[in-house]
Amino acid sequence: MNNSDFTCPQCGSAAAEHGLRLLLLGSGGREHALAWKIAQSPLVQTLYIAPGNPGTSAVGVNVALSPSDFPAVATFVKEHSVDMVVCGPEQPLVDGLADYLAADPDTAGVAFIGPKKAGAALEGSKDFAKAFMLRHCIPTAAYRTFDGTMAAEAKQYLRTLTPPLVLKADGLCAGKGVLILPTHAEAGQALDEMLGGKFGTASARVVIEEYLHGIELSVFALVDGNGGYVILPEAKDYKRIGEGDTGPNTGGMGSVSPVPFADADFMRRVEEEVVKPTVRGLVEDGIPYKGFVFFGLMNCGGAPKVIEYNCRMGDPETETVMLRLKSDLVPLLQATADGTLAGMQAEADPRAAACVMLVSGGYPGSYPKGFPIIGTAEAESVVFHAGTAEKDGTLVTAGGRVLAVSSYGATLKDALATSFSGATQIDFQGKYFRRDIGSDVL
Ligand code: AMP
Ligand code: GLY
């Protein structure tokens, strides 16, 4: 689809007469990267970001609106004649924002990028996702699910597995619900704590699964609910705070794209063994999924296995994937909503992209904020805001992950060099970043 094919689903006029009015929900580095890409499209007349951040205000209009306030989102969509809503984070999707807007006759016709509650369960319930994979023969770790009445059985199952032992809270836990334990004794104790309410109702059920050995990567696709899909450039993220993948997990300390070990053969296997059966499975199960699917994969000696699904883009993967997506994103989103993705392709930029995350000292534990940030304008990189705020006209730190320093390069090495240079140049009190992003795959 190109510009001239576009017709507004609401007023029926062509793009030239009526550019799209888009509402992007979210406020992190992922949303700044999505906004940066969407704003480049000639199809877009107005891009609203709710609530956005100081970075998104440079490419669109920030709106003081919480994505979790469904009635407020619906009112905004109606009052501003929004044509398309793109949901960045998972929580509103898992809570049923798409269902809410579809149930209101005034917003039902608005294109919505993100699955309804039934599809978002791929991320919102680990047990649902595992059962889906099993049902559709999608390669994943062997597993069983247990509730509070099954602790003895769960421990018996644990004894059949070789450490490390993987325990996952069934529900959403802001990335903290997966525990990997070195011994059966520790796993048994963690199991009791989880079933006892360590993560509230999210761990009322616990998935215990086989540990997968290999190297991880993230693959993304847009899925149109009609059997159509388009695979976006892949990426690898770095989750631990410390160099050499040590220390606690974070929201993500950096990313690279492309992923050198994800060669054409491996990506062919990903498409045939993971993406196609997932898309087919959604249709077969009657789950009308329109949105991003994030496949968290393990490359197990050349065979892809699914660690998890997410119903959104990754963060900080989006901060490299959007640089590498050469195609206009907006026609792809439109075709996702229309169910016409089949036959479309996402053209990748031949350059490499790297992202180095600048975080507040102390993160992922507690950290002070409100420190002035200098040097963003001078950096050669595309600097995406993750946790920043404006205070009396000064840009200050406002979160654990502060800025994503993303760069192009002829090679991954060049892209990383530019990001490290930007990461050094940009400064705020307590700044920390990992200097080894990408070094494992170079
Ligand atoms: P998840 O939230 O399911 O992505 O899990 C968080 C992290 O735990 C993943 O990114 C992996 O690094 C690790 N992990 C989860 N499941 C497994 C598994 N079965 N084997 C090895 N590592 C895993
Ligand atoms: N980077 C991993 C995630 O977004 O969940």
Describe what you observe in this structure:
This protein folds into three domains: 3-117, 3-Layer(aba) Sandwich (Rossmann fold), CATH 3.40.50; 142-209, 2-Layer Sandwich (Dna Ligase, domain 1); 215-425, D-amino Acid Aminotransferase, Chain A, domain 1, CATH 3.30.470. The protein is built from twelve helices and 22 strands. The chain has helices at 29-38, 70-79, 91-94, 97-103, 117-124, 126-135, 151-159, 184-195, 264-284, 318-324, 329-338, 412-425, and strands at residues 20-26, 44-51, 61-62, 84-87, 111-113, 143-147, 165-169, 178-181, 205-209, 215-223, 229-231, 236-237, 240-242, 246-249, 254-257, 291-300, 303-310, 352-359, 382-385, 388-391, 394-397, 401-409. Strands 3-2-1-4-5 form a five-stranded parallel sheet, covered by helices on one side. A five-stranded antiparallel sheet has the order 12-15-18-22-19. Bound molecules: adenosine monophosphate (AMP) and glycine (GLY). The site of adenosine monophosphate has 11 residues, from strand 7 and strand 17. Glycine is lined by residues 237, 252, 310, 314-315, 317.
Offer a concise description of the structure.
With 442 residues, the protein is α+β, with helices and mostly antiparallel strands.
